[in-house]
Amino acid sequence: MAITQNQRDKAKQFQEIHRKEGLFVLPNIWDAGGAKIFEQKGFAAVATTSAGVAFANGFSDGEELPLTILLETVQRISTKITIPLSVDFERGYSENAEEVYENAKQLLLAGAVGLNIEDGLPDKSISDRQSMKRKLEYLNQLKKEFALDFLINARTDIYWNQIGEQKSRLSATIERLNSYLSWGADCVFVPGNISVEELQRLTKEVNGPINILLSKNLKNINQLNELGVKRVSLGSSVSRNSIKHLFNESNKIKRNDFDSLLSDSLSYDFVNQFYGMGEEK
Protein backbone atom coordinates (compact mmCIF):
# COMPACT_ATOMS: atom_id res chain seq x y z
CA MET A 1 0.00 0.00 0.00
CA ALA A 2 1.10 3.54 -0.73
CA ILE A 3 -0.34 7.04 -0.67
CA THR A 4 -1.85 7.82 -4.06
CA GLN A 5 -2.58 11.09 -5.83
CA ASN A 6 -6.27 10.24 -5.57
CA GLN A 7 -5.92 10.05 -1.79
CA ARG A 8 -4.07 13.38 -1.73
CA ASP A 9 -6.91 14.91 -3.76
CA LYS A 10 -9.47 13.56 -1.29
CA ALA A 11 -7.48 14.97 1.63
CA LYS A 12 -7.44 18.37 -0.05
CA GLN A 13 -11.17 18.08 -0.71
CA PHE A 14 -11.83 17.25 2.96
CA GLN A 15 -9.74 20.21 4.14
CA GLU A 16 -11.64 22.51 1.78
CA ILE A 17 -15.00 21.40 3.20
CA HIS A 18 -13.82 22.71 6.59
CA ARG A 19 -12.77 26.04 5.08
CA LYS A 20 -15.95 26.73 3.15
CA GLU A 21 -18.63 29.03 4.50
CA GLY A 22 -21.31 27.28 6.51
CA LEU A 23 -21.86 24.08 8.42
CA PHE A 24 -21.81 20.52 7.13
CA VAL A 25 -23.16 17.26 8.56
CA LEU A 26 -20.71 14.37 8.74
CA PRO A 27 -22.43 10.94 8.87
CA ASN A 28 -20.68 8.31 10.97
CA ILE A 29 -20.70 4.79 9.56
CA TRP A 30 -19.20 1.42 10.42
CA ASP A 31 -18.97 -0.46 7.13
CA ALA A 32 -18.64 0.01 3.38
CA GLY A 33 -22.31 -0.68 2.75
CA GLY A 34 -23.44 2.19 4.96
CA ALA A 35 -20.78 4.49 3.53
CA LYS A 36 -22.07 3.88 0.01
CA ILE A 37 -25.62 4.79 1.06
CA PHE A 38 -24.55 8.16 2.49
CA GLU A 39 -22.37 8.82 -0.55
CA GLN A 40 -25.33 8.08 -2.85
CA LYS A 41 -27.44 10.56 -0.85
CA GLY A 42 -24.97 13.31 -1.68
CA PHE A 43 -22.96 13.74 1.51
CA ALA A 44 -19.55 15.30 0.91
CA ALA A 45 -17.68 12.93 3.24
CA VAL A 46 -18.17 10.17 5.80
CA ALA A 47 -16.42 9.16 9.00
CA THR A 48 -16.24 5.99 11.01
CA THR A 49 -17.80 5.77 14.45
CA SER A 50 -15.54 3.93 16.89
CA ALA A 51 -18.59 2.68 18.77
CA GLY A 52 -20.37 1.56 15.60
CA VAL A 53 -17.36 -0.34 14.26
CA ALA A 54 -16.87 -1.96 17.67
CA PHE A 55 -20.55 -2.93 18.04
CA ALA A 56 -20.68 -4.35 14.50
CA ASN A 57 -17.78 -6.64 15.39
CA GLY A 58 -19.10 -7.69 18.80
CA PHE A 59 -16.97 -5.40 20.98
CA SER A 60 -17.77 -2.56 23.35
CA ASP A 61 -16.48 0.94 22.60
CA GLY A 62 -13.24 2.35 24.02
CA GLU A 63 -10.40 0.77 22.03
CA GLU A 64 -11.68 -2.73 22.84
CA LEU A 65 -11.79 -3.32 19.07
CA PRO A 66 -8.43 -4.67 17.85
CA LEU A 67 -6.59 -2.18 15.65
CA THR A 68 -6.27 -4.88 12.97
CA ILE A 69 -10.06 -5.00 12.57
CA LEU A 70 -10.26 -1.20 12.38
CA LEU A 71 -7.58 -1.23 9.66
CA GLU A 72 -9.47 -3.86 7.67
CA THR A 73 -12.69 -1.86 8.01
CA VAL A 74 -11.05 1.37 6.85
CA GLN A 75 -9.49 -0.35 3.86
CA ARG A 76 -12.83 -1.90 2.83
CA ILE A 77 -14.68 1.40 3.13
CA SER A 78 -12.04 3.50 1.37
CA THR A 79 -12.01 1.20 -1.66
CA LYS A 80 -15.80 1.34 -2.06
CA ILE A 81 -16.43 5.10 -1.98
CA THR A 82 -15.17 8.12 -3.91
CA ILE A 83 -15.69 10.70 -1.14
CA PRO A 84 -13.27 11.46 1.73
CA LEU A 85 -13.17 9.07 4.70
CA SER A 86 -12.24 10.24 8.19
CA VAL A 87 -11.48 7.72 10.93
CA ASP A 88 -12.31 7.86 14.63
CA PHE A 89 -8.89 6.99 16.02
CA GLU A 90 -9.95 7.32 19.68
CA ARG A 91 -6.73 7.91 21.73
CA GLY A 92 -4.57 6.63 18.90
CA TYR A 93 -4.53 3.18 20.50
CA SER A 94 -1.71 4.30 22.79
CA GLU A 95 -0.53 7.05 25.11
CA ASN A 96 2.92 6.77 23.53
CA ALA A 97 3.22 9.34 20.73
CA GLU A 98 5.59 7.18 18.68
CA GLU A 99 3.12 4.28 18.76
CA VAL A 100 0.29 6.64 17.80
CA TYR A 101 2.44 7.76 14.87
CA GLU A 102 2.88 4.16 13.69
CA ASN A 103 -0.81 3.37 14.13
CA ALA A 104 -1.81 6.52 12.25
CA LYS A 105 0.55 5.62 9.43
CA GLN A 106 -1.27 2.31 8.96
CA LEU A 107 -4.68 4.00 8.88
CA LEU A 108 -3.52 6.49 6.27
CA LEU A 109 -2.07 3.70 4.15
CA ALA A 110 -5.47 1.99 4.45
CA GLY A 111 -7.11 5.03 2.84
CA ALA A 112 -8.07 7.51 5.57
CA VAL A 113 -7.81 11.24 4.81
CA GLY A 114 -8.89 12.43 8.24
CA LEU A 115 -8.11 11.28 11.78
CA ASN A 116 -10.06 12.04 14.93
CA ILE A 117 -7.93 11.83 18.09
CA GLU A 118 -9.19 12.42 21.62
CA ASP A 119 -7.85 13.11 25.10
CA GLY A 120 -10.40 10.94 26.95
CA LEU A 121 -8.96 7.99 28.89
CA PRO A 122 -10.63 4.65 29.75
CA ASP A 123 -10.94 5.63 33.44
CA LYS A 124 -13.05 8.68 32.40
CA SER A 125 -10.23 11.14 33.08
CA ILE A 126 -8.39 12.99 30.31
CA SER A 127 -4.76 12.80 29.24
CA ASP A 128 -2.36 15.59 30.14
CA ARG A 129 -1.75 18.43 27.72
CA GLN A 130 1.81 17.39 26.90
CA SER A 131 0.65 13.94 25.83
CA MET A 132 -1.77 15.48 23.32
CA LYS A 133 0.88 17.94 22.19
CA ARG A 134 3.30 15.12 21.37
CA LYS A 135 0.61 13.14 19.55
CA LEU A 136 -0.39 16.14 17.43
CA GLU A 137 3.25 16.94 16.63
CA TYR A 138 3.82 13.36 15.47
CA LEU A 139 0.67 13.43 13.34
CA ASN A 140 1.85 16.63 11.67
CA GLN A 141 5.18 14.95 11.03
CA LEU A 142 3.24 12.29 9.12
CA LYS A 143 1.68 14.98 6.93
CA LYS A 144 5.15 15.98 5.78
CA GLU A 145 6.44 12.43 5.46
CA PHE A 146 3.53 11.33 3.26
CA ALA A 147 3.01 14.72 1.55
CA LEU A 148 -0.62 14.18 2.55
CA ASP A 149 -2.60 17.03 4.09
CA PHE A 150 -4.99 14.77 6.00
CA LEU A 151 -7.31 16.52 8.43
CA ILE A 152 -6.55 16.24 12.14
CA ASN A 153 -9.63 16.63 14.34
CA ALA A 154 -8.61 16.93 18.00
CA ARG A 155 -11.28 16.13 20.58
CA THR A 156 -11.47 17.04 24.23
CA ASP A 157 -13.64 14.98 26.57
CA ILE A 158 -13.93 17.58 29.33
CA TYR A 159 -17.71 17.72 28.89
CA TRP A 160 -18.11 14.10 27.78
CA ASN A 161 -16.36 12.79 30.93
CA GLN A 162 -17.67 15.63 33.12
CA ILE A 163 -14.20 16.71 34.21
CA GLY A 164 -14.07 19.19 37.09
CA GLU A 165 -16.86 21.46 38.26
CA GLN A 166 -19.54 22.54 35.80
CA LYS A 167 -18.62 26.22 36.14
CA SER A 168 -14.99 25.61 35.12
CA ARG A 169 -15.58 23.28 32.15
CA LEU A 170 -16.16 25.92 29.52
CA SER A 171 -12.96 27.89 30.17
CA ALA A 172 -10.95 24.65 30.44
CA THR A 173 -12.42 23.45 27.15
CA ILE A 174 -11.64 26.70 25.35
CA GLU A 175 -8.06 26.57 26.64
CA ARG A 176 -7.61 22.96 25.53
CA LEU A 177 -9.11 23.47 22.08
CA ASN A 178 -7.00 26.54 21.35
CA SER A 179 -3.90 24.64 22.48
CA TYR A 180 -4.76 21.75 20.17
CA LEU A 181 -5.15 24.15 17.26
CA SER A 182 -1.81 25.79 18.04
CA TRP A 183 -0.19 22.33 18.10
CA GLY A 184 -1.39 21.48 14.62
CA ALA A 185 -5.01 20.35 14.79
CA ASP A 186 -7.09 21.48 11.79
CA CYS A 187 -10.45 21.21 13.57
CA VAL A 188 -11.48 20.67 17.20
CA PHE A 189 -14.27 18.52 18.58
CA VAL A 190 -16.19 18.94 21.82
CA PRO A 191 -18.88 16.30 22.47
CA GLY A 192 -21.04 16.25 25.58
CA ASN A 193 -23.83 18.08 27.36
CA ILE A 194 -23.17 21.61 26.13
CA SER A 195 -25.75 24.37 26.29
CA VAL A 196 -26.46 26.74 23.41
CA GLU A 197 -25.03 29.58 25.50
CA GLU A 198 -21.80 27.68 26.12
CA LEU A 199 -21.56 26.80 22.45
CA GLN A 200 -21.95 30.47 21.57
CA ARG A 201 -18.89 31.30 23.67
CA LEU A 202 -16.96 28.39 22.20
CA THR A 203 -17.47 29.53 18.63
CA LYS A 204 -16.41 33.06 19.56
CA GLU A 205 -13.32 32.20 21.60
CA VAL A 206 -11.92 29.13 19.86
CA ASN A 207 -9.53 29.99 17.02
CA GLY A 208 -10.56 27.36 14.49
CA PRO A 209 -13.36 25.18 13.08
CA ILE A 210 -15.56 23.57 15.73
CA ASN A 211 -17.06 20.09 15.50
CA ILE A 212 -19.97 19.17 17.78
CA LEU A 213 -21.89 15.95 18.35
CA LEU A 214 -25.57 15.88 17.41
CA SER A 215 -27.67 15.81 20.59
CA LYS A 216 -31.19 16.56 21.76
CA ASN A 217 -30.31 20.14 22.64
CA LEU A 218 -27.95 20.67 19.69
CA LYS A 219 -29.96 19.47 16.69
CA ASN A 220 -31.26 22.66 15.07
CA ILE A 221 -28.96 22.86 12.06
CA ASN A 222 -29.93 26.42 11.15
CA GLN A 223 -29.21 27.59 14.70
CA LEU A 224 -25.90 25.73 14.82
CA ASN A 225 -24.91 27.28 11.51
CA GLU A 226 -25.74 30.76 12.80
CA LEU A 227 -23.66 30.10 15.91
CA GLY A 228 -20.66 29.32 13.73
CA VAL A 229 -20.37 25.55 14.14
CA LYS A 230 -18.48 24.06 11.21
CA ARG A 231 -19.11 20.32 11.50
CA VAL A 232 -21.88 18.23 13.07
CA SER A 233 -21.07 14.56 13.68
CA LEU A 234 -23.80 11.94 14.09
CA GLY A 235 -21.59 9.80 16.34
CA SER A 236 -22.94 6.34 17.12
CA SER A 237 -26.59 7.40 16.70
CA VAL A 238 -27.12 5.73 13.31
CA SER A 239 -25.46 2.55 14.58
CA ARG A 240 -27.58 2.48 17.73
CA ASN A 241 -30.71 3.15 15.71
CA SER A 242 -29.91 0.16 13.50
CA ILE A 243 -29.21 -2.03 16.52
CA LYS A 244 -32.55 -1.00 18.01
CA HIS A 245 -34.23 -2.19 14.80
CA LEU A 246 -32.42 -5.54 15.07
CA PHE A 247 -33.52 -5.96 18.67
CA ASN A 248 -37.13 -5.20 17.72
CA GLU A 249 -37.09 -7.59 14.76
CA SER A 250 -35.42 -10.37 16.73
CA ASN A 251 -38.18 -10.12 19.36
CA LYS A 252 -40.83 -10.48 16.65
CA ILE A 253 -39.04 -13.39 14.98
CA LYS A 254 -38.78 -15.14 18.35
CA ARG A 255 -42.60 -14.94 18.50
CA ASN A 256 -42.83 -16.31 14.94
CA ASP A 257 -44.08 -12.89 13.79
CA PHE A 258 -42.54 -12.35 10.35
CA ASP A 259 -44.97 -9.73 9.00
CA SER A 260 -42.75 -6.64 9.20
CA LEU A 261 -39.74 -8.65 8.02
CA LEU A 262 -41.60 -9.66 4.86
CA SER A 263 -43.50 -6.43 4.23
CA ASP A 264 -41.11 -3.66 5.32
CA SER A 265 -37.81 -4.90 3.88
CA LEU A 266 -36.23 -3.54 0.71
CA SER A 267 -36.39 -5.92 -2.22
CA TYR A 268 -33.45 -8.18 -3.00
CA ASP A 269 -33.21 -6.74 -6.52
CA PHE A 270 -33.08 -3.16 -5.27
CA VAL A 271 -30.32 -3.81 -2.74
CA ASN A 272 -28.37 -6.07 -5.06
CA GLN A 273 -28.44 -3.53 -7.88
CA PHE A 274 -27.53 -0.70 -5.50
CA TYR A 275 -24.37 -2.49 -4.43
CA GLY A 276 -23.61 -3.61 -7.96
CA MET A 277 -23.52 -7.29 -7.14
CA GLY A 278 -24.85 -8.52 -10.49
CA GLU A 279 -27.93 -10.52 -11.37
CA GLU A 280 -30.23 -12.21 -8.90
CA LYS A 281 -29.04 -15.61 -7.80
UniProtKB/TrEMBL annotation:
SUPFAM superfamilies linked: Phosphoenolpyruvate/pyruvate domain
Pfam families reported in the protein's UniProt record: PEP_mutase (PF13714)
Coiled coil (residue ranges): none
Gene Ontology MF terms in the entry: catalytic activity
Protein name: Carboxyvinyl-carboxyphosphonate phosphorylmutase
